[in-house]
Amino acid sequence: MKALIVTLLGAATLAGLGLLFFGGESPVRVVSAQVERADIEDALVTNGRIEAAGRSDLYAETSGRVLRVEKSVGDMVQPGAVIATLDSQTAGAELAQAQARVEAARAELAVWDSGLPVQQRLDIEAQIATAQAQRRALQADLERAQRLIDKEAAPKMEAVDLERRIADLDREIADLNRKLEQKPDAEGRAQIEARIREAEAGVALARRRAGASQIRSTVAGSIYALSVRPGDYVAPGALVARIAGGPGVQARLFIDEPELGRVELGSRATLTADAYPGKSWTCAVDRLPSEIVELETRRVGEVLCSVEGDPGRLIPNLTVSARIPSAHAAAAPSLPREAVQHDGEGDFVWAIDAENRLRRAKVETGVRGDARIEIRSGLELGARVALPGAEPVHEGELVEETGQ
């Protein structure tokens, strides 16, 4: 009996040692997937807002208080229709001041063309008359002195002094006459003409501002937004009204700067709105961005997209989400997106071989959809791969598949 027990214990020990040194490897449980054909669509998802088609925004060109609002939301208007009227007192005062500047500049030019101001001309003419009277008196004195000198009754120096004084007066009279005849220089006239043009431009601007006290429609259409009420004070550039100049609506979509290359003219987008669950609309891109603008913390290009068919409840300023397909692969070999990993060597997967062991396989990917990614090379249809789990896996590791 004791011999039997010893024999059994020995056998058990040998069995344990055998399992220790020669026993089976415990497989790692993994979730797996296989390469299958699927239609894959890569799409850009962003946000935007609805606008009236052919929208025209009307802004105040001058400051003032709103006296009257002539139209209401929903009214149809024609070009030139008065939407609102502002208090024009300030604009009228600006016009009067501008006209006064023009008149002053024109008067300055007239004086310049006449050569001298009237008073200055009168002063010079008076100086000439005085000098001529003095010369006549000196000439009479010279003639008397000459007679006395001829009779040797006066020294010759008296005549010489009178002749010198007469010559001085002749030079003075000549200088005064030159001042009367002096013509204005061209440069000075050009400066005055420039001031006249500047003043006339000020008049034109003031007249436009005075006329701008009546804010008029620039297009035919329907008013869908009014931003002012009687009594409001508006500054230049303030929004007064928005007019829909055409039928239908359009979406203004905000595309992040790095994604702009994925959108082209004619690209079709699907619009949805949180306000209307389960409903969607289609639009086609008909205008690409002309610049990058700041939108809160984003740098975006604004794309315009005309909504097709009946816009239904898509009203101006409604916030919408947009999905714009940028690439499509039909019936392409594919895997779940999470199956494809990336490192410094490129895209790869953990393929499961015939012995249920993991093998790193480099793959070439194509279109990336929301759920699946196209596999262009590196795996055959039906190939099985392990999806990433909580624990890292290693080359050659034995696995047990649990399905997807």
Structure description:
The protein is of the alpha+beta class. It folds into 3 domains: 25-53 and 249-404, Elongation Factor Tu (Ef-tu), domain 3 (Beta Barrel); 55-87 and 213-244, RNA polymerase II/Efflux pump adaptor protein, barrel-sandwich hybrid domain (OB fold (Dihydrolipoamide Acetyltransferase, E2P), Beta Barrel); 102-203. It has helices spanning 2-22, 89-114, 118-150, 156-181, 186-211; strands at residues 28-30, 32-34, 36-52, 55-59, 64-69, 76-77, 82-86, 214-216, 221-226, 233-234, 239-244, 249-256, 268-272, 281-287, 292-295, 298-307, 319-336, 341-343, 346-352, 358-362, 364-368, 372-377, 384-386, 399-401. Strands 3-12-16-14-13-17 form a 6-stranded antiparallel barrel. α2 packs antiparallel against α5 (186-211). The two termini are 56 Å apart. Mean pLDDT is 84; it is low at 1-23.
Q: Using DSSP, what is the number of strands?
A: 24
Query: Quick one: CATH class of the largest domain?
Result: Mainly Beta
> How would you describe the shape?
elongated
Q: How would you spell out the order of helices and strands?
A: HEEEEEEEHHHHEEEEEEEEEEEEEEEEE
Report the uncertain regions.
Answer: 1-23
Instruction: Find the structural class using helix and strand composition.
Output: alpha+beta
Strand ordering within the main sheet: 3-12-16-14-13-17
Mean pLDDT: 84
Count of spatially separate domains: 3
Major beta-sheet overview: 6 strands, antiparallel, barrel
Give the name of the CATH superfamily of the largest domain: Efflux pump adaptor protein, beta barrel domain
Alpha plus pi helix count: 5
